[in-house]
Amino acid sequence: MEKVIVVVIIIVLALMFLGRQNAIMIGVLGTVAVASAGMTLFFILYLLKLLFSKKKKGTFLRIERNGMFRWHAAIYLVDGEEIPCIFPDDGVMDDKIYRKDKTYTLFYNKHSGKVFDRISITTCVIGIIFTLAIDAALVFMYFWLYR
């Protein structure tokens, strides 16, 4: 609800001070572009972390709450050490996704001390594809609206 109120206040202020409806469209496009650029940078950062990770074999142990954060993460046993997954668990279909009797190929990032599992890799790849597509669509919309 608070987000809706903030958006309404921004639109009202844009109408009062700028007086043009084009300003609202530029403001909305700008806000979406900044959010999309942030998401793109996030996925590029994690894709780079993935590229500089070492391939290891590990088995799934459990899903537990990650230390100082509020989300749950998958814990894997890699070389006798329990290592959490770099992305949080969403809690959907965990019994189908994670199996204790199977050995998984993981990518261990030494700097973060976490692993990328197949779900994390899929999230990175799909995330970068979609955010780049959204960025391209925003650039297209800007030039289409203001040519």
| Sheet with most strands: strand arrangement | 3-2-1-4-5
Rg over alpha carbons: 21 Å
Query: Proportion of β residues?
Result: 15-25%
For the record, give the distance between the C-alpha atoms at the N and C termini, rounded to a whole number. 36 Å
Number of helices: 4
Helical amount: 40-55%
Report mean pLDDT, rounded to a whole number. Answer: 82
How would you characterize the largest beta sheet?
Answer: 5 strands, antiparallel
What coarse outline follows from CA principal-axis ratios? Answer: elongated
Give the SSE order as H and E letters. Answer: HHEEEHEEH
- Uncertain runs are none
Based on helices, strands and strand pairing, what is the structural class? Answer: alpha+beta
Give a count of the beta strands, DSSP E runs of length 2 or more.
5
Number of domains: 2
In short:
This protein has helices at residues 2-18, 21-51, 94-97, 118-145, and strands at residues 54-65, 72-78, 81-84, 103-109, 114-116. It is α+β, with helices and mostly antiparallel strands and 147 residues long.
Question: What's the topology here?
Answer:
Layout: H1 2-18, H2 21-51, E1 54-65, E2 72-78, E3 81-84, H3 94-97, E4 103-109, E5 114-116, H4 118-145
Antiparallel strand pairs: 1-2, 1-4, 2-3, 4-5
Helix pairs in contact: 1-2, 2-4
